[in-house]
Amino acid sequence: MSEGSTRLKWTSDVGPGAPFAGKEPLPFGRRRKRPRGPRLPVVVVTGFLGSGKTTLIRALLDKPEGAGTAVVVNEYGEIGIDHALLRSSSDVTVLLGNGCLCCNVRTDLQETLRELFADRARGAVPSFERVVIETSGLADPGPVLQTFATDRGLGREFHLQALICVVDAVAGMTNLEEMPEARRQAALADRVVVSKSDLAEPGAAELLIAQIAALNPAPVGIAKNGEIEPAFLLDEPPVARDNFELGRTAHTHGLGSFSLVFDEPLSWPGFEQAMAVLTALRGSDLLRVKGLLAVAECRGPVVVHFVQHLAHPPIELEEWPDEDRRSRLIFITRGLARAAVAQLFAGIAAVAA
Amino acid sequence: MFVAANRGLSRKEGAYLTAAARGARLLALVGPQLKRGRQMTDTAIWNFRQLAHHELDGFGGIGEGMSIQIAKDGRRILWLAHESAPKNFTAVDVSDPRAPKLVARADLPQSHMRSNSLETVGDILAVAYQTTKPGLQPAGFELFDISVPENPRSITFFDCSGPHSRGVHQLWFADGEYIHMSSGAPDFIPSHPRDDQFYRIIDVKNPSKPVEVGRWWLPGTREGDSEPPPERHPEGADTGFRPHNTNVYPERPDRAYLGYIDGGLVILDIADMAHPKMVARWDYHPPYHGFTHTVVPFFDRNLYIVSDECVRMEGGDWPKLVWIVDGRHEANPVPISTCPLPPLEAFQRRGGRYGAHNLYENVPKPNAWKSDRIVLGTFFNGGLRAYDTSNPYQPQEVGYFVPAPPERSPTGSIQINDVFVDERAIVYTVDRHVGGLYTLEMDF
């Protein structure tokens, strides 16, 4: 939600009362089968230096499920090495050169993905069906998330399918404690892969998983020799999760996550106003907000996604993923507790009613 | 394998990487695809899933007639019109779209004719016959009883031949009562030989005795009209002032939506079938190169989707487009956007035609898919392409299917010609020359 309320922005061309809305106005456009709709899925693999990102991607590319993958490698160093390791496995490999994806190479990423999209349309590169981005070990995934968060960035053509964080069982615990970049990577991830568990001391992986869980309730998988079930990397993370009801705030160095559940359908204007207030006052502390909403104005559930002060256009789905028809929102924040956010939503709902 | 954007590397190092990558390119492409069991290495597919490909046993040149019949025994039969002689039509059992089976195939009686268009309603099949030159026979349409798909039996032949007629190019048959078609007639003398076909309505309520109930032509195209003949398009781009598709829908039984080739879009009031009246025309040629092909109304959204047909090789008549037209004020259709296509350079040299042709027409029959958001169009070597028109000012491409060049393709390329979607949302698309039938699922 940049620049305050986005209500008009999302609904002016296609919403109720628009000239070509038809009998059944769809405020967020055509209902989609899945949150990414037709967009190309992008899997971003983060992880601290040496955590095993390249090995994980290589193992994926060697599996049938990995066919049709374009790999974009961001390396921090004089001459790229990781992309050379990946080159023999992927149809399309692009190296983003010197620098960190979160800093000077971010526009390179946008340009590269746009070029890839155009080259693919005109047949200049093989017709890949997903992109895997390997970030440099020092990258903060936040800015990368932002490039996919709006249709002014890459969000019209590409969909961030999953942010994967690789944490190695040998050095991961120390990195999480001492390196703020490593903490942010783990906190923002949709899924965490623990690597090198075979090299670590017995019990180390279990301790590490507990440490990650305190930071992020995301599912954690253990890679064996760099390999993990491809679906764990490639599938869209479900918005609803088994541990969703926890609603906990687990602060580690100011980072934490919590969830809100609403039993009754939300009114879209009320939801928008609540998020507008949050993003206006605390946008930089809203690292990620993901949700599946029952919206009073819509038949299908609506997927929303915020990264700091940016909002991706909402997507209305054809079907609910399960029997649960309640609205669910997950917040990953910095120094912002659940109670304050819950009170904000409750207050606006009370005023709106 | 493709290495680019070597930012941070010196030019020399970048060149080295690219060259090294080229050496491994084919291996890299073939490897993962073979593992996946793909048969073709250079099919480009996005948000479609290919279910099957049937080359129709060597006669895989399909025109622009595709229609589903549910046979009495429950089989789902797809009837296909052939692009050119020697075959007339082919029936394929697509009950299992992963395993289409050839059921029946008929030959044309003459080599100087083609049956490029067909439709089925229930157990009746209507097939258009057009001859290569005026004055030849048989020119008209034939009705078949297809209650046993393996054994189509002729019911009647409706003769449209005449000294100035090539017969029927295209017919629309959806309600079981009337055939709307682009046809010549024995008594019709066009003011220019390229304007030999016009709009005719034939009552087939008694299939043994079809009767013409109405006709319309663009004023000036018949010899003796009081209006002057239309100004010809330049030689080489003069494809005639005559209808191509003639669509009529139950939502507006009083309207016929005509792609009138060099005449643009034409909407007729056919409430009185004996006296059709033009209520709207949108003619955008010149500067565009003519050959308006299909008009599909999205009734609830006040939109028309209009396609051109590309008729020249290698971009000779580029651009041939799919237009989104604002139909809120019926008398004044206003184009508001076109469906985006890859640049001409990308497809121009692949062989054959590249540009718009047929659209999926929201066929008003029970075994046909309906959507007033998604447009599916065929673009010859540009393949099958899907667009979301939720925001009609900015249609967005949401999928494509560009098969590898079929073996023995005379153009060296795929030439995707037509598309049909059944009520199960299974997509059927065909090659114009040899490739036959492809079945797909939509995944967007």
Describe the overall structure:
The complex is a heterodimer of chains A (353) and B (444). Chain A has 11 helices and 13 strands. Chain A has 353 residues and is α/β, with parallel strands linked by helices. The N terminus of chain A is likely disordered. With 444 residues, chain B is mainly β. Chain B contains 3 helices and 29 strands. The radius of gyration of chain B is 22 Å and the shape is globular. The interface between A and B is large, with 53 and 53 residues.
Concise account of the structure shown:
The complex is a heterodimer of chains A (about 350) and B (about 450). Chain A is α/β, with parallel strands linked by helices and about 350 residues long.
Question: Biggest interface and its residues per chain?
Answer: A-B, 53 and 53 residues
SS summary, helix count of chain B: 3
Taking all residues together, what is the mean pLDDT of chain B?
91
Per CATH, which architecture of the largest domain in chain B? 7 Propeller
Largest sheet of chain A: 7 strands, parallel
CATH architecture assignment of the largest domain in chain A: 3-Layer(aba) Sandwich
What gross morphology of chain A would you assign?
globular
Let me know the largest β-sheet of chain B. Answer: 5 strands, antiparallel
Secondary structure: helix percent of chain B: under 10%
CATH homologous superfamily placement of the largest domain in chain B: YVTN repeat-like/Quinoprotein amine dehydrogenase
Strand sequence of the main sheet of chain A, in spatial order? Answer: 3-2-4-1-5-6-7
Indicate the low-confidence ranges of chain B by residue numbers.
1-41
Q: Please, how many helices of chain A?
A: 11
CATH topology of the largest domain in chain B: Methylamine Dehydrogenase, Chain H
Relevant terms:
heterodimer, A: 353 residues, alpha/beta, Hypothetical Protein Yjia, Chain: A,domain 2, Rossmann fold, 7-stranded parallel beta sheet, 11 helices, globular, disordered N terminus, B: 444 residues, mainly beta, Methylamine Dehydrogenase, Chain H, 2 domains, 5-stranded antiparallel beta sheet, 4-stranded antiparallel beta sheet
